[in-house]
Amino acid sequence: MALELTARDRSMLDGEQGPSAAAAMKILVAFSNAVGAGCLLDIAGAHIDGCLYHGKAGLDFVERLVEGGGRVQVPTTLNVGSFDLIHPGMVKMPAAEEVPARRLMKAHVELGCQATFTCAPYQTRFRPGFGEQIAWGESNAIVFANSVIGARTNRYGDFIDLCCAMTGRAPAWGLHLSENRRGRILFELAVPDPEPNDSLFVGVGLFIGQASGDRIPVIAGLPQPRDEDQLKALGAAAATTGAVALFHAVGITPEASTLYEAFQGYAAEETIRITRADIDHALAKLSSVPDGAPLAAVSLGTPHFSHDEWMRLLPMLRDVAPGRRIPIYVNTGRATLTRLQEEGALAGMEAFGLIPVADTCTYVTSILERLDGVVMTNSGKWAHYAPGNIGVSVAFADMKDCIRSAAVGHVVRGAP
Amino acid sequence: MIWSTETGAVERFGTFQLAGEAEGQALVFSQPLSFWGGIDAETGDIIDHSHPGLSQNVAGKILVMPSGRGSSSSSSVLAEAIRRGTAPAGILLERPDPILAVGAIVAEFLYDIRMPLVVCDIAGVASGDRIAVGLGADGRAIVSIGSLPD
After folding, report:
1. Which residues of A have a CB under 8 Å from any CB of B?
2. What is the pLDDT of residue A1?
3. 1-40 in B: which are within 8 Å (CB) of A?
4. Quick check: A160 and B76 CB within 8 A?
């Protein structure tokens, strides 16, 4: 299929709107041709996963767009960087690495991107609406936007998310189009009266991520979640063990009020039952240490903690009162942190070992004081990536168990 | 397919995802290789333990495989490898790949280095063949494949 461009697309491509827009459109056109899109479509917003410093080419690209006078054409949020700009000194990095890492974050802001530095842009004021076309990077954000909100994005990544933002356009293909959003594979949760606890949602996410391949999963029998943060945890886990960009949960997510709607009237290509043993097995793989192992730290907030999650954590901290021996890191967006500070919600919390982290995440950069011990987390995503990224041992558990463990200094699970 | 009588090379046409000229020895894989997690951009070494090409080096070769694979972070790794001079001299694919296309175009934009990325029939190409990628008059890629002398 030949790619059809509008007059405005052409004018960008021909450089009439500056060298940066021309470069972005040229890359977008090549990408669109490669995926076989017939045309481009307008997007309402973008989320850029380009602020983690991985090498000179990434920074050179953004610098060149800045030099060319480029500006993003739609509201554009930024994913986490390598640095906590709100808490200087939090990240321990040699100066030679710190300078380009900081510059990469600032250069994106100079293109007109919002300094959100969060992997949960869907829980900021830039949250998209149902049916909106967007171009997002960051796997957990993509799956949340598509599944929980019903906004429409493909899995955009390196350079191309920014090219969409710089042009306000995206290729009309994949999950932007209704017919490609139908379910393909059915997962039946075969757990009688499942408790809607956090681990269940993480376990289901891990399982469907691994078993779906490139087919859109539909989950039947999932209990109503307490809040959207449980679906956030499910999606983040599914996008960790697999490449899930969209899931439907029948009776829960907006494009799946019924099984029929989730499959758009087609039959499932395959049906897989998820048993209690499947979930337990998926969760067990997240922990490399037994109960009783001495604890070095707790890390919560991957993806970034929402205000609601903080409202669950803070009373728990006051109740369990873990003391400050074991640091409890909580990754969150700077806007959420500002709101909490304005509310006075964090006053005195450092006495319980609480260390809020903004703009980045404890598993992508050097924050943890000790890497030789066990870190406990309630995040399937953190548990999966942290051993490889920063070399820690991990114990996965519900938030309550994480806090109780911090209080006693070793891993305890199965809190009453 | 056109047989060139002078050199004994086989020529076939392809489509450019990024246009350019290159020459080098073919490095052929039937299994796609992800640049991210698969190639060390500092050296060009293949580091994917699950790939049959493990510990071979792609620098200066004409990499031939059915398609690209894996994470979109491969765009960055390819661009970085092109910048460092550790990338293949060119890549031949059977199917177009958006991730590698972005990496190649970004490298051209930033560093003015054109690593041709060509979609063409790769049947019969063997590792060690001499490959030359040229620009056809009509914008098509001309891929000439010379077998190793017996």
Report:
1. 23, 26-27, 30-31, 33-36, 54-58, 60-61, 64, 137, 155-160
2. 60
3. 17-18
4. no
Decide if A49 is inside a domain.
Answer: yes
CA distance A183 to A275: 21
Could you report the per-residue pLDDT of A208-250, keeping only the tens digit for each?
999 998 899 999 999 999 999 999 999 999 999 888 999 999 9
Residue A414 in any domain: the answer is no
Angstroms from B8 CA to nearest CA on chain A: 33
User: What's the CATH number where A133 sits?
Assistant: 3.30.499.10
Q: Answer yes or no: B71 catalytic.
A: yes
Angstrom distance (rounded) from CA A62 to CA A7: 26
Chain B residues in contact with A157 (beta carbon < 8 A): 71-73, 75, 99
**DSSP, residue by residue, A284-314:** HTT--S-TTPBEEEEEEEEEEE-HHHHHHHH
Q: ipTM of the assembly?
A: 0.85
Range of the domain at A242: 182-284
pLDDT per position as a tens digit, B70-122 = 777 889 999 999 999 999 999 999 998 888 999 999 999 999 999 999 999 99
pLDDT single digits (tens) A157-178: 899 999 999 999 999 999 999 9
Contact status of B87 with chain A (Cβ, < 8 Å): no
Separation CA A404–CA A411 (nearest Å): 8
| Distance in angstroms (rounded) separating the CA atoms of residues A232 and A236 | 6
**How far off is chain B from A61, nearest CA to CA, in Å?**
7
Rounded to whole angstroms, how far apart are CA atoms A123 and A336? 9
Q: What is the pTM of this model?
A: 0.92
Is A152 contained in some domain? yes
Q: Which residues contact A349 (CB under 8 A, 6 or more apart)?
A: A314, A317
Pairing of strands A295-305, A328-332: parallel
For chain B, which domains are there?
13-141 (3.50.30.10)
